[in-house]
Fold each of these.
Amino acid sequence: MESLVDAYFNGLTGLKEEQLLRDYFRKDDLPETLKVYQPLFRYLAAERKERRRHTLHLQLRRNAWKWSAAAAVLLLCIALPFAGRMYKTASPEISQMYINGKKYTNIELIQSETLKTLEHLAESNESAISYQAEALESFFR
């Protein structure tokens, strides 16, 4: 083990040997010659564990954002068609007309008032009115 410690301090150990050293120095019953290195290797083991925990925490946060975004997109894909249907059923397209600031939606009333207005205008410009009347008649069919 002493030669492995020397190799570690000379930068000649790999990951397996370093893990072996960390595991070895976790023990309490060490030879007196190696007890001096125990605090160092325990500190390195604790730092490595903390770094892994921190890395895992960052990965979880990144994944949480990804999953949240995916859930939001899925929710929109599901909710938008229903919202569109609800909007169409809640407020169907209707004809409307304002007379003296009051809103009317009765189609028969709108048609008759439109024709009255066209007849009134027809007295002044007959050709323009006939064109508008044709356009309105095609709309009401």
Amino acid sequence: MQTKGTRRRKKAAPLRAGRVSVIIPVRNERRTLSSVIRQVRRLSPSRIEIIVVVNGSTDGSGRIAEALGAKVISCEAALGHDVGRSIGALHATGDVLLFVDGDTPIPAKELRPYIRAVERGTDVALNRYLGPVRGKRTHPVVLAKHVLNAALGRPELRGVSMTTVPHAISRKALEAIGAASLSVPPLAQTIAIHRGLKVSPVHLVNIGRINRRRGRRINKLGVDQVGQLIVGDHLEALGWYLEQEGSRGRYKDETRIRETVR
């Protein structure tokens, strides 16, 4: 009998056969990129395709990625938030596409559940992270996520979103969503749900705790630029959905008698 002191750790179950493309958008993240790639490499060296999209970097991030054996796609000018996901997806050859960020090293054991979920039939495997929800005032980004999921008829998703890494998608999902839509993550999620794909939160990685160094980008007018962008992305996604389903989405007018309104 094994005692507590001699009990062996269970080895992680091997990933199934098939290629996995890991897409890492990067902009001036040489301090963390090596750690990110090394963790990704531990997933399964023989079947992992690492695609680093260098989005307007000036710090040599691309050279670091090349030295570590990644496929590097370089864009001289910064193309905007999340565009690297679309570019990476266009070049991916895998059956599973896993998305992480170049500034957030995540242990391989925390990445495996997303790949396994897709291998078992999930089309979009999401991080269960909800964002800060216990404060007195709900952050606009968190609120936007809740509102969109409710409008899509998936209120149980709450603040779970493709804006948050890590997450993974199937080749089927990529073809249904389209690589271009991945540059607007809420739109990609909306299309996936609308087209009947299996979208599920599968594992929790507390990305807020891991990446505390990423601060909000506040401009001279005191505006959170990234937060404002993400809220705008959700509005774009909601607009797309209403174009497909009509101004009330799938919700009925029920028993409202408009004639009584003065």
Amino acid sequence: MFDYTPSPSLSTQLCEPETLHDAWRKVRSNKGSPGIDGVTIQQFEVNLTKHLRQLSRELTEDRYYPLPVQKFTIKKSNGSTRELSVLTLKDRIVQRAVCDLITPIYEAQFLACSFAYRPNRGVPHAIAQAAAIRAEGYEWVVHADIENFFDRMDTQMLMRFLRASLKEPLILRLIQMWLDMGGILQPPKLPTWIAHVENTVHHLGEGVEQVTDRLLHRTPRFENYTEYSNTLPEDEWGHHESEMDTQTGPLAQTGKELLTNLGRDGLLLLLANAKHLWKPLAAKQLLFIAPIVVAALAAPTVGSMVKERMSRPRKIGIIQGSPLSPLLANIYLHPFDKAMTRAGIRLVRYADDLLLLCRNESRARHAHQLAQRQLATLKLALNPKKTEIVDFNTGVEFLGHIFDRDGCYQPVPESPAKSLQNQVQHVLKNGAAHVVHSGQHVTQHGKNIATQLSERLKRRT
């Protein structure tokens, strides 16, 4: 179980102008373009104190809602493209503040095999770790890359990990909104029947509410961004390897969730109309008979609810370019790190790029299969085009370094003189092509003039 005692002042710290001011300084140092609202760093800084106090009030009064992100595509060095997202300046400040507050909680739990996006850890440390493990006799390696990692992260699973490890309702609500920020333009409006249900349940008494919760294992509705319950579900973020290898597949889990939602919506609908439909029955009798008759009495309405729920687009993946995304990525892959480490696999992971170091080829192939199974439980997969099982002596490139029989080294960068020579050759080549093209154009133009003169002479004669 995740050992974390919640600090009652964590949410309070987030709302303090001093915390937001510290986050502002970090956002300003990173510079960056304005978001969809067009507010630049210079414009925000003109009335800095006023803006930070207003942001503090919005957080305190639960009036803060993020704006949609502005997306653009960049080209990577290998020719592929990557989509990045730019948040508004206000949203970057709040995300930076949340990240600074919760990072120490998770840093205490992350394993030593993870090196990306962490304080005082980076590429040099990952390379040194890989070299040290190789020196112990681990000459075979699985060099792998997680396919479309940021785009395929399951946000519902991520929220379960967060709920199991963080007992801060305000911060959980903010993170859920940021994961859904693509569609949030204004505070969501709750359907009127929800208030009717709440009033009906209140009149039926607290005992009815408790029995309903136990019967249906009701959980908070995150899509409505309501306050979270203080009771935590099972610590899914702390799964052991055996737990991650459970035979309960995604289909069975989806069916379970569907039945739970069906029972909850149907029972609440029945309770909401209990005054008219079940007036002769007492509350306890209603609770026992409701699961039996709900399908018959409320099938059309419940069916439409389920149809709407299933047809609703389900968002997956997290945006790249936000202050909180790197931390969320490490939280999501933490169960994978634990499972591989407990299996005795020597792992060096930098975000979605990883090495599995083994003593022989057969062990490496076993590690490869295990990694595939564990990632499948996180709804991820290895990229087959970027995954290889090789001996270190044949050469392995990892994080810009090359491991081979000569050791570990970085490729020698192109010298300035060589770079200049290439640029000159490029200019000369393009210039020559331009001259050739111009010469062809002049020659053709001359031929046209000669043809026209010849035709005129023929007419005169």
